[in-house]
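If you are new to this repository, start here. Below is one unmodified record pulled from the training split, so you can see the exact layout before writing a loader.
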Amino acid sequence: QVQLVESGGGLVQAGSSLRLSCAASGFTFSSYVMSWYRQAPGKERELVAAIASGGGSTNYADSAKGRFTISRDDVKNTLYLQMNSLKPEDTAVYYCNAYRSISGSNRRYNYWGQGTQVIVSS
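And here is the target side for that same chain:
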């Protein structure tokens, strides 16, 4: 079955760094757009960063630009998010997402992990 397992969250001080990982299994990882989302208490889930299948292009939320880097290892079936210069407003549960749409059809596949908590203290 499909599994997305996030790890690497924790409690850190402002200005610190964290590296989140998402181990994927049960689907063809290399064929999926992979993304990191986050959800802070009382707020909607928002896109943080995304990386195309094959790793050819990336996209970042304005809040993540210049501080976060998304990457993927299609051999290890793992997605990463390197987060530097963390701020208290980065506090949230971070979720891994896998998405694929099949061209020429209506089939779409969308999978979520359980999330990993990141808390940044001031």
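Two things worth knowing about this chain: The chain has a mean pLDDT of 96. The first strand starts at residue 3 and ends at 7.
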